[in-house]
Amino acid sequence: MPKPRQTQQAPSSSILAIESSWDSATKTLFAYREKHLYTRLKKTGWDLTILSGKMARRVFFEAEAAKDGIRLIIGMGHGDYDHFTGHLGEVVLEVGKYDAAIVRGRIIHLLSCRTAGKLGPDLIASGATAFFGYSGAFTFLFGYESVFFECVSEVDRALAEGANAATVHARTSEAFDRQIDLLASRSGLAAAILTGDWEYFCSPATNSRFGNEKASL
User: The pTM is what?
Assistant: First the structure.
């Protein structure tokens, strides 16, 4: 009797990224991340879905985030204390205006201004296990953008490699410190801006309102 045909199952562990790329800042960020971050993440064995350009909208994000197996949500775009935006500034996540099921049990990293102020803690209250983001404006200096982007990409690289939130924070701190020291001799302004970005960085290691230090993928 022939054996029943086995069906291929969907990946059990996936990363969902939503990336704005509609203005000069987000286009520059996405170009770097697509080449240097996501190429690397794909090699780690994770199933990776990237919503960029016109796909970086709430309707598409919610459909993908509702799927089983999502472990990490990465977002890059403009934001404010209570919301994160995608294409053309459309709100994708806003305090009190999303289904908790799409964030429950996930780790979330938002490279976006001020979202750690209110949105980050709200995501944790809705069941996310860890949040990484910024309580103030994330800024970078053109001409030195790769240095800035290398630092913030350490969060996603460390998470994909299985580090827990406390270790992710430590590795990111080392990346920022290393680059700030290197920039000091090249551009005092760039070093000062990067230092400011680090001061705004929030994670479970900075406060429990951002989740569990032991959370990992």
Answer: 0.93
Q: How would residue 163 be classed by pLDDT, with cut points 50, 70 and 90?
A: very high
Assign domain 14-210 one CATH number from 3.40.50.10490, 2.20.25.110, 3.40.50.1460, 3.30.465.10: 3.40.50.1460
Please report, for the chain, the start and end positions of each structural domain, with discontinuous segments joined by +: 14-210
Q: Is 24 exposed, middle or buried (0-12, 13-18, 19+ CB in 10 A)?
A: exposed
Q: What is the distance between the alpha carbons of residues 27 and 12, in angstroms, rounded to a whole number?
A: 31
Determine the Cα–Cα distance for residues 54 and 21; give it in Å rounded to an integer.
9
- What's the distance, Cα to Cα, between the start and end of the chain in Å? 41
3-state secondary structure 45-62: CCEEEEEEHHHCCHHHHH
Which alpha helices (DSSP H) does the chain contain, by range?
Answer: 24-32, 38-42, 58-65, 119-125, 145-160, 165-184, 188-200
pLDDT at 12: 53
Whether the predicted pLDDT of 1 surpasses 50? no
d(CA 137, CA 148): 14
